[in-house]
Amino acid sequence: MQLVWFRNDLRLDDNPALFHACQYAMEKGDTVRAVFIACPEQWRLHDESPRKLGILQSALQSLQKTLADLGITLELLDVALFDDVPKVLLDYCQSHQANGVYFNREIPLNEKHRDEAVAELLGNHGITVQPYSDDRIIHAPLLSKQGAVYRVFTPWYKNWLSVLSNGLPEVLPSPKAPAKAVDILEPITVPGAEVFREDLWSGEENKALDQLQRFCEQKAEHYQAKRDYPSIAGTSTLSPYLAIGLLSARRCLHTLFEVCVKQGFHHEDCLNHVWARELAWRDFYRYLMLNFEHISRGENFKQEPLSRGWLTNEDAKRAWETGQTGFPIIDAAMQQLLRTGWMHNRLRMLVASFYCKLLCLDWRDGERFFMQHLVDGDFPSNNGGWQWSSSTGCDASPWFRIFNPTTQSQKFDESGDFIKRFLPELADLDSKSIHWPSQEQRLACHYPDPIIDYKEARQLALDFFKVDS
Ligand SMILES: Cc1cc2nc3c(=O)[nH]c(=O)nc-3n(C[C@H](O)[C@H](O)[C@H](O)COP(=O)(O)OP(=O)(O)OC[C@H]3O[C@@H](n4cnc5c(N)ncnc54)[C@H](O)[C@@H]3O)c2cc1C
């Protein structure tokens, strides 16, 4: 028997480990089974959010059905920590006579160490381990002309583009059924899973693929013009699917290209599409995490020691977390996160800048809060976004770049529609005062006073960051 170990790749489409396990089994007349290993204690340490576990559970239940149609039984194994995984996998392999285990690699350090321990233990017992590279668009090592690992996005991106200008990476089809359909055992339940917004996302791969197709056909063309306005549904909202691997990033790029080519664009134009560039950012943060292990340890990307420490201000932190800062765009954004588990990219940048720059709070706590609440929590992208915002990261926002929440609000939510949606108490304010209500208006709307004076906080932050510039 060949065993597929599912992790962040809960799909049939373009899944190297699943594809090759099925292909091998078909050639050899062998069978395939599959497992997913829940590690609730490890997930708690990694701050996985209950909503993300909710969509993960839904995806596993759906995968259980589609795999059963292919004759593959998917089972959930349950341990506390990654350290417990090698033994539980070995026991499973031995009790089901598995002689090969297939999985797609994951990049963060704990996952890497877990996989090394699995490979060693299974190898010692004569079980072959077959890891595949999966979760980026380009897996070949991208190095500068001097052979160095890139630390800055733009030259890395040029290299990324030049590789893709020779052709897109292969996407694998869903595997052919290696055996007759099997019955489903108990539907999988994932410890810690809670309700997610099923009106916004689904755990079904087909629905995720449909959403991708619709986005590419109907919205990608206007993405550049609309992507910065949180009141408009101008982005794909595919991030929860990419985070659990219900979609592959390569499939996203292929679909974009297919649609663009049909619309008469050339390969190079498709490659330079702004949406493809966003997928490149996702690849880039993974590339960094792979090449700089200290990122996985929660350290600043820039390793020069900081002479200053971050401030401690529990009241301000709590106000930010609960959307009570008295800055409408910040509070509306935090409400979006709390109510849906998702936040628009422009707002992620704004609230993170507010947290690290205006409140001078440690980016790691903001990163953790995001992970605990996001339905699309993704360690490399979240870490990259927070380090960019706090100017500690690779190619980060310069230390003196501090977003003014009010002018950003006026620019990107001009009519105040987004604020009104998430702060209904301000819905009656006109489009001018909604960005910065007067004291009387705040009182009348039961909306809090600002927790900081923007100008003072900005000056303090500039002094604070200047020390290490
Ligand atoms: C502080 C901060 C924290 C973030 N945390 C996460 C996170 O936990 N998970 C996550 O997936 N993204 C994160 N991002 C990146 C980005 O905000 C989201 O990927 C994006 O908002 C998701 O919406 P979408 O699917 O509509 O994106 P689209 O604009 O449609 O982009 C398509 C896909 O490209 C990828 N992508 C887009 N922008 C970025 C980016 N800046 N960095 C990395 N990948 C990107 C995502 O996979 C996204 O789904 C964070 C950004 C910041 C500034």
Describe this protein's structure.
The protein has three domains: 2-132, HUPs (Rossmann fold, 3-Layer(aba) Sandwich), CATH 3.40.50.620; 141-169 and 206-291, Serine Threonine Protein Phosphatase 5, Tetratricopeptide repeat (Alpha Horseshoe), CATH 1.25.40; 314-466, DNA Cyclobutane Dipyrimidine Photolyase, subunit A, domain 3 (Orthogonal Bundle). The chain is 49% helix and 6% strand. The protein is built from 21 helices and five strands. It has a five-stranded parallel β-sheet, with helices on both faces. The structure holds flavin-adenine dinucleotide (FAD). Flavin-adenine dinucleotide is lined by residues 227, 235-239, 242-243, 278-279, 281-282, 285, 345, 348-349, 352, 370, 374, 376-378, 381-382, 384-386, 389.
